Structure formats: C-alpha cells, structure tokens
Amino acid sequence: QVQLVESGGGSVQAGGSLRLSCALFGSTYSVNCMGWFRQAPGKEREAVATIYTGGGSTYYAASVAGRFTISQDKAKNAVYLQMNSLGPDDTAMYYCAADYRPVCVGPYEYTYWGQGTQVTVSS
Asked: Could you tell me if 63 and 40 are in contact, meaning their C-beta atoms sit under 8 angstroms apart?
C-alpha cells in the first residue's frame, strides 16, 4: 500500500506561482509512475503531468507545458509540481497519484491517490 499526502495549494492571482508537494508513505519501492491530476467543477479529471520514477521521463498536458514542472526527490519520497504563470483556467482540485505500472500515461487509472489540494487562481 502507498499513501499520498498533498500540500501547497491555495489562492493566487493570475500570473502567480504555486508549488505543490506530494509525500509518499508505505511501499514506495513499488511505485514506477507518479502523476499530478486535476479536476475543475463540472469537468472531467485530467492528467497534468507525470514522471517515471526510474528514469525521470516526464509528460505534460498541452495546456500546462512550459508553465508547470514535475520533479521528484527520491531521498525524501516526494514529488513536486511547480506551477508558474497561473491563470483562472488552472483553478481546480489537484491530486497526486501513484502507480506500480511502468507506463505513466495510458488508458488506465492510477492505483493510489491523495486527498487533493485546492488551487484557485483569480483574474
């Protein structure tokens, strides 16, 4: 089992930045993929960014590429999402997720999820 705890959400004005953190607990050795997902009211959940913990390869949704950066700190069992140039469309609940499968982007749902952290961007 893997437990995930997110932090770092909050309210910010458009153009601002936030850094989300995700701490992993439990059987972290089994995790191959980490991801940040978000869900805005009335919208489906979407993958924002993923990282393959073994090699560090990353994926970004087109809507955040160039503005968001996913990173990991294996020593701290943590994953981060640096979000810059935030806009109102980035307002959503952000979730950290982990999976044991080696393919980080695919037609499947990640196995482990955090409780979410709210990000609100005002114009």
From this structure: no
* Cβ atoms within 10 Å, residue 71: 15
Residue 115 has pLDDT above 90, yes or no: yes
CA distance 54 to 119: 28
> 92-113 burial, b if ≥16 CB within 10 A, otherwise e?
bbbbbbbbeeeebeeeeebebb
Spatial separation of the C-alpha atoms in residues 44 and 67, rounded to whole Å: 21
What is the Cα Rg of the chain in Å?
A: 13
Q: 56 with 73: CB under 8 angstroms?
A: no
Q: Is the C-alpha dihedral spanning 57, 60, 65, 69 positive or negative?
A: negative
At position 36, the amino acid (one-letter code) is W
Per-residue pLDDT, 47 = 96
Burial 38-54 (b: 16+ CB within 10 A, else e): beeeeeeeebbbbbbbe
| Percentage of the chain modeled with pLDDT above 90 | 89
Confidence band for 107, pLDDT divided at 50, 70 and 90: confident
